[in-house]
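Ligand-bound model needed. 2-oxoglutaric acid.
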Amino acid sequence: MLSARQIDDYRDTGWLVVENVLDKEMLSRMRQVIAEFVAGAAKVTKHDHVYDLEPGHRPEAPRVRRIKTPHINHPLFWEIAKLPKLVDMLEQLLGPSGVRLHGSKINLKAPQFGSPVEWHQDWAFYPHTNDDVLAVGVMLDDMLPENGPLMVMSGSHTGPTYDHHQDGYFSGAMDPTKLDFDLSQAEALVAPAGSMSFHHVRLVHGSAQNTSQKSRQLLLYEYAAADAWPLMGVSDLTNFNERLVSGQPNIVPRMVDVPIRMPLPPSPHQGSIYENQTAAKNRYFKIREFA
Ligand SMILES: O=C(O)CCC(=O)C(=O)O
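Prediction:
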């Protein structure tokens, strides 16, 4: 369970890191499954429902940027999404209506090429009827200043919803030349493998390329309060309710006055965040080419 101090910190800053939630045995099970997924990318030449590939991917030298929806693609990741100690913390942060898994992904930043993610708010991708929505980062490796950890702008979760469009289409990236705050003040969420971070859906965040020799694997789960309904709609109510990890199905959304921008019209590069963000003309994070 989280202490009152941790909950206050989350409310003030929009993020929280809880160290050493998962033990070594669980971490090694997860790493094993991920290694099998990466090896499986040898059969793939383009992005599909499981893989988002790094530029430079070749079947004989697989480069995977993201494993998509791991809670659907492997039972271990659904098991972790419902871990009682995780759900207890989520209930404390998201309120009494219950908690629903919205989505999941594993962002793999391999040594010396793992791609950056430009600054954004998750809220720009999936606005809901209220903002009791957050993402959990399950740290599969030590998060270090040099391996591209998640970086956050404390307090930005109470500010505006920023423009994430380019040339009239959703790009999933904020333009770093048009911001009213100083990105050099961002904080890196560094912590040992097995820790978890929690970041509010409106928090501005991003991450640099992994230029180090150390891997950076981060499993991300997105959760919403059970009474937060996605404004982009619910196409399958049965599946929507099956993703509840606590609480009961309900059809009474809680409406809160929060700043919204819709992620429409969709990006001409509609796909993962990496694909969407290729439309961004002004980028903050540099990309270095390695041999
Ligand atoms: O993997 C990262 O460092 C950032 C991930 C992220 O913010 C996202 O995928 O929405």
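The first helix runs from residue 4 to 13.
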